[in-house]
Amino acid sequence: KKELMGHTRRVGLVEWHPTAANILFSSGYDFKVMVWNLDTKESVIMSPVRTITCHQGVILSMSFNTNGSLLATTCKDR
After folding, report:
1. Total-model pTM
2. Which of 6, 54, 68, 69 could link 19 by a cystine bridge, Cβ 3.0 to 4.6 Å?
3. Phi and psi at residue 41, in whole multiples of 5°?
């Protein structure tokens, strides 16, 4: 069990990386996608590995290609 601290508003989506172990992506109503490495001993992770800020609205979906090299997102900002 892990507690992830990073988003400033509620989280709408979570997606596991298709090929990398223990890597989780989350998107929230703060318009950010955060990359988390869960392969740690800590039960509370205070910051993500990376934060992606490319949208001006709520992220509606996200999906990886089969080998995990690309992430696609759709957003209310079109």
Report:
1. 0.90
2. 68
3. -80, -25
Q: What is the CA radius of gyration of the chain?
A: 12
Is the per-residue pLDDT at 76 higher than 90?
no
Q: How far apart are CA 72 and CA 54, in angstroms?
A: 12
Measured between alpha carbons, how far is 49 from 76 in angstroms, rounded to an integer?
25
71: exposed, middle or buried (C-beta count within 10 Å: 0-12, 13-18, 19+)? middle
Q: How many Å apart are CA 5 and CA 2, to the nearest integer?
A: 10
Instruction: Output the six-digit token pair for 24.
Output: 């989780």
Asked whether 36 and 56 are in contact (CB, 8 A), the reply is: no
Q: Give the C-alpha separation, 64 to 57, whole Å.
A: 20
* Sequence ranges of the domains in the chain: 3-59
pLDDT in tens, 15-64: 999 999 999 999 999 999 999 999 999 999 999 999 999 999 999 999 99
